[in-house]
């Protein structure tokens, strides 16, 4: 147990609870290590048949990584910032390969790093309060924690759209596009946890079956917001299937269909005015490359990409530091991006994020999946 993570065994279930609600349960390095340590302890413990991940507080499971720490670490000239990402990405992979049912209660805000500790779960439960996104391009980063992998595996060009824009969506959309499995009323989450903790389970499959049955037999949440992505699928695939980001913007600008014109204009304005030009272009390339990669290879790639973001390879400017400063630290909402526009980003600017040796001796994730 660390200050912001409570781990306990109740019955035959290991519970991991994030207890930093004032910071929307944002993941610190210590929290990442604590979660990983609990999973390691329970992996071969025959008394534990399954794991439940949940967040404390009304606002949600986890809003992402502790981005203030990134800003402070780079400002202080610390080079150990990459240890954070090494441990976080190892945790993401450990969850994806965990031998016991890992059930994620994706209630409230689930973004960035919160998606990373949820998307590989055996059962991903959302509620009427779920607000999901990979919003990294707004702060000069890219969708990491395996984001390239799970976005790339969505249908059509949804991955490019969600990754570059970072838009927020709810439970219905999450289930329809494959980023969640089932919807459960928020008020029913404690009852589900009690059922799992008190059950006389014979094996791991019985735990997972019981959780699925509980959700299936529950009443649907009241006031559940309808999905917004399904009606846009044709437009998303058309525009975000263009060869590069300038072409995406041109396509959006010339959308003539009445039913999509308002959305197209809003999306173009969002990309131009509120996202890092460089990281929007990098994210488009990341998602498309990830379609040919395993999760392990994508996490290795993301580690090298993140090293470039924070200027630890001697070549790139700290785009992420500036984005965090503008939106979270100083809150002036006027980031001074490296490029004045998406059109100003060159192919060489993007290529620098992908030209490293993927399995080199300096990559601490070189052994994943081997």
Which SSEs are present, and which pair or pack?
Layout: E1 5-10, E2 13-18, H1 29-43, E3 50-55, H2 67-75, H3 81-96, E4 102-106, E5 109-111, H4 113-116, E6 123-126, E7 131-133, H5 147-152, H6 158-165, H7 171-177, E8 182-183, H8 189-198, H9 204-217, H10 233-239, H11 245-253, H12 258-274, H13 277-290, H14 295-309, H15 319-329, H16 347-351
Parallel strand pairs: 2-3, 3-4, 4-6, 5-7, 6-8
Antiparallel strand pairs: 1-2
Helix pairs in contact: 1-3, 2-15, 3-14, 6-13
What class do helices, strands and sheet pairing give? alpha/beta
Taken in chain order, the helices and strands follow as EEHEHHEEHEEHHHEHHHHHHHHH
Radius of gyration: 20 Å
Residues in helices, as a percent range: 40-55%
Determine the CATH superfamily of the largest domain. Answer: 2-enoyl-CoA Hydratase, Chain A, domain 1
Query: Can you tell me the number of structural domains?
Result: 2
Contiguous runs where pLDDT drops below 50 for at least 5 residues? none
| CA-CA gap between termini | 30 Å
> Going across the major beta sheet, what is the strand order?
1-2-3-4-6-8
CATH 2nd-level architecture of the largest domain: Alpha-Beta Complex
Report the principal-axis shape.
globular
CATH class of the largest domain, anyone? Alpha Beta
Number of DSSP-assigned strands: 8
Please indicate the percent range of residues in DSSP E strands (runs of 2 or more).
5-15%
CATH third-level topology of the largest domain: 2-enoyl-CoA Hydratase, Chain A, domain 1
Report the oligomer.
single chain
Largest sheet: 6 strands, mixed
GO molecular function, one term: 3-hydroxyisobutyryl-CoA hydrolase activity
Domain Enoyl-CoA hydratase/isomerase: 13-354
Keywords: Hydrolase
Protein name: 3-hydroxyisobutyryl-CoA hydrolase
């Amino acid at each position: 147990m660390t200050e912001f993570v409570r781990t306990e065994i109740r019955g035959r279930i290991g519970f991991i609870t994030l207890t930093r609600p004032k910071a929307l349960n944002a993941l610190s390095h210590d929290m990442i290590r604590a979660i990983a340590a609990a999973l390691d302890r329970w992996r071969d413990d025959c008394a534990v048949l399954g794991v439940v991940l949940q967040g404390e507080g009304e606002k949600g499971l986890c809003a992402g990584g502790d981005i203030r720490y990134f800003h402070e670490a780079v400002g202080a000239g610390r080079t150990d910032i990459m240890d954070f990402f090494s441990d976080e990405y190892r945790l993401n992979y450990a969850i994806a390969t965990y031998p016991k049912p890992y059930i994620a209660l994706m209630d409230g805000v689930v973004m960035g790093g919160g998606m990373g500790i949820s998307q590989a779960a055996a059962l991903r439960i959302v509620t009427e309060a779920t607000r999901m996104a990979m919003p990294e391009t707004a702060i000069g980063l890219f969708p990491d924690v395996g984001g390239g992998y799970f976005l790339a595996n969505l249908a059509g060009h949804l991955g490019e759209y969600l990754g570059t824009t970072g838009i927020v969506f709810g439970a219905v959309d999450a289930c329809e596009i494959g980023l969640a499995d089932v919807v459960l009323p928020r008020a029913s989450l404690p009852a589900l946890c009690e059922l799992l903790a008190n059950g006389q389970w014979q094996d791991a499959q019985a735990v997972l079956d019981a959780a699925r049955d509980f959700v299936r037999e529950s009443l649907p949440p009241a006031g559940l917001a309808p999905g917004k992505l399904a009606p846009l699928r044709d437009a998303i695939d058309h525009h975000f299937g263009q060869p590069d980001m300038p072409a995406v913007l041109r396509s959006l600008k010339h959308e003539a269909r009445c039913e999509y014109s308002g959305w197209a204009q809003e999306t173009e304005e969002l990309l131009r005015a509120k996202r890092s030009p460089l990281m929007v272009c990098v994210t488009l390339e990341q998602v498309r490359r990830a379609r040919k990669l395993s999760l392990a290879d994508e996490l290795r790639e993301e580690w090298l990409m993140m090293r470039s973001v924070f200027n630890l390879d001697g070549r790139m400017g700290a785009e992420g530091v500036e984005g965090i400063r503008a939106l979270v630290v100083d809150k002036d909402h006027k980031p001074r991006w490296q490029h004045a526009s998406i059109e100003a980003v060159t192919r060489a600017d993007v290529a620098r994020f992908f030209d490293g040796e993927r399995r080199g001796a300096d990559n601490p994730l070189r052994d994943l999946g081997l």
